């Protein structure tokens, strides 16, 4: 009997020991997997705690390790634990790119390192990629992703704007100029400048994109020859055309086989958005890298119709079609706008076209937009004009893999109530609910007393 009890005890001890060993092994295995594998789910509304699609796409273009050195103290007078804030911000990028290395340096403990790195602010970051380095003094997704986009861009991309004839300036501050658009090009890694063909021997060979935007005076025959020579050798062109005269650029339109219909596009749908009827709304786009995944409204003030004449040399894709219920108004705008079937052209109307052809075994690209206003300082903020313009320049520069995808829109996190709603909620919580609780207590007290 005693021998049987001993065997039973021994068996139970062995089973308990095996169970304990298996439990410890399982816990150790789970701990190892937790260290080696990191899985996260973003359940916030709109996914605001994760990177936007645009940022993830840019990170995919960075082939190689990325290093970020953060110069931050443990505590900041305004932000508190600034290190923790930056660490959480950068962790989103690290989850998307495993070789994204982050290192922290305390400038108060190592002032010499901070001085050598030319650090000017607490929380400043230095981003390094393949020998290139840039400083970043703000930690928000748009700023860092723009910086990474500049680093992902192979080589230097120079955008030149034709000047000397009253054109819109890429660095101008007037309402009609393109200064804000030029600033955004710089943040994307482009170098911008102006080009006067009256004094320059020709368009420089390092020009990635030449912009012609609404000259107000005629180009000379010599300037036109230099411009056509640039087109002949395969240069990329962005031509913004208004309803004004071409001022000597008719040979360029003929070279591109374009017909520019006189008159202004009238779009009644614009009135539904409280915009002038002469603002053509872009909502229908052609199938092209510029418009891929682009499902946003664009606005083209005082646009004109473009018609491409099919030929064997150029390949064309209509980019934007507007005024499905509108027309091309050939009459004067100040004498009343009404459709005249004898003179006006019924919509829909094509106002932008992308052209390409093969020159010396490489693809030449050009884009013609029938509105110089849509990128002007006054109208750049309308719809997604800026994103569409950046996409155009990226494609023309041969960087369609960096075409900007508009960032994710985060839903509003604030609740705005009317005055009536505030009164109802206040009365409910401060008067009605306390009265209900008081009445319930009285009823309970009365029933207990009755018993």
UniProtKB/TrEMBL annotation:
<feature type="domain" description="ABC-type uncharacterised transport system">
    <location>
        <begin position="157"/>
        <end position="386"/>
    </location>
</feature>
<dbReference type="InterPro" id="IPR019196">
    <property type="entry name" value="ABC_transp_unknown"/>
</dbReference>
<feature type="transmembrane region" description="Helical">
    <location>
        <begin position="423"/>
        <end position="446"/>
    </location>
</feature>
<dbReference type="InterPro" id="IPR029062">
    <property type="entry name" value="Class_I_gatase-like"/>
</dbReference>
<dbReference type="Pfam" id="PF09822">
    <property type="entry name" value="ABC_transp_aux"/>
</dbReference>
<keyword id="KW-1133">Transmembrane helix</keyword>
<feature type="domain" description="DUF7088">
    <location>
        <begin position="47"/>
        <end position="118"/>
    </location>
</feature>
<keyword id="KW-0812">Transmembrane</keyword>
<protein>
    <submittedName>
        <fullName>ABC-type uncharacterized transport system involved in gliding motility, auxiliary component</fullName>
    </submittedName>
</protein>
<dbReference type="Pfam" id="PF23357">
    <property type="entry name" value="DUF7088"/>
</dbReference>
<keyword id="KW-0472">Membrane</keyword>
<feature type="transmembrane region" description="Helical">
    <location>
        <begin position="17"/>
        <end position="35"/>
    </location>
</feature>
<dbReference type="InterPro" id="IPR055396">
    <property type="entry name" value="DUF7088"/>
</dbReference>
């Amino acid at each position: 009997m005693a021998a049987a009890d001993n065997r039973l005890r021994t068996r139970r001890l062995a089973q308990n020991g095996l169970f304990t060993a298996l439990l410890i092994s399982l816990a150790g295995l789970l701990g190892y997997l937790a260290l080696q594998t990191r899985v996260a789910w973003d359940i916030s509304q709109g996914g605001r705690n994760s990177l936007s699609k645009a940022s993830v796409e840019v990170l995919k273009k960075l082939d190689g390790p990325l290093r970020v050195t953060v110069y931050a103290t443990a505590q900041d007078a305004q932000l508190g634990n600034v290190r923790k804030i930056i660490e959480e911000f950068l962790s989103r990028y690290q989850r998307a790119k495993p070789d994204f290395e982050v290192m922290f340096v305390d400038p108060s403990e190592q002032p010499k390192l901070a001085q050598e790195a030319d650090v000017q602010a607490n929380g400043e970051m230095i981003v390094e990629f393949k020998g290139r380095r840039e400083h970043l003094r703000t930690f928000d997704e748009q700023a860092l992703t723009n910086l990474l986009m500049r680093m992902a861009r192979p080589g230097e991309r120079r955008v030149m704007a034709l000047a000397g004839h009253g054109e819109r300036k890429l660095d101008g501050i007037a309402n009609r100029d393109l200064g804000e658009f030029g600033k955004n090009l710089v943040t994307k890694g482009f170098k911008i400048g102006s080009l006067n063909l009256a004094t320059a021997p020709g368009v420089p060979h390092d020009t990635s994109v030449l912009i012609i935007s609404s000259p107000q005076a005629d180009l000379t025959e010599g300037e036109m020859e230099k411009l056509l020579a640039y087109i002949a050798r395969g240069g990329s062109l962005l031509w913004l055309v208004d309803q004004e005269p071409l001022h000597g650029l008719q040979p360029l339109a003929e070279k591109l086989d374009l017909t520019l219909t006189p008159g202004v596009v009238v779009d009644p749908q614009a009135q539904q958005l409280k915009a002038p009827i002469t603002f053509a709304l872009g909502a229908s786009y052609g199938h092209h890298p510029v418009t891929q995944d682009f499902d946003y409204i664009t606005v083209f003030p005082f646009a004109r119709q473009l018609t491409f004449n099919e030929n064997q040399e150029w390949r064309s894709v209509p980019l934007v079609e507007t005024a499905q219920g509108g027309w091309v108004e050939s009459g004067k705008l100040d004498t009343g706008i009404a459709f005249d079937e004898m003179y006006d052209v019924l919509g829909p109307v094509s106002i932008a076209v992308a052209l390409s052809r093969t020159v010396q075994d490489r693809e030449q690209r050009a884009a013609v937009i029938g509105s110089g206003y849509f990128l002007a300082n006054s109208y750049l903020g309308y719809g997604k004009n800026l994103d569409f313009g950046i996409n155009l320049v990226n494609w023309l520069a041969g960087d369609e893999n960096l075409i900007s995808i508009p960032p994710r829109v985060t839903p509003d996190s604030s609740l705005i109530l009317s005055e009536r709603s505030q009164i109802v909620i206040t009365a409910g919580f401060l008067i009605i609910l306390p009265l209900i609780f008081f009445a319930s207590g009285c009823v309970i007290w009365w029933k207990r007393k009755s018993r």
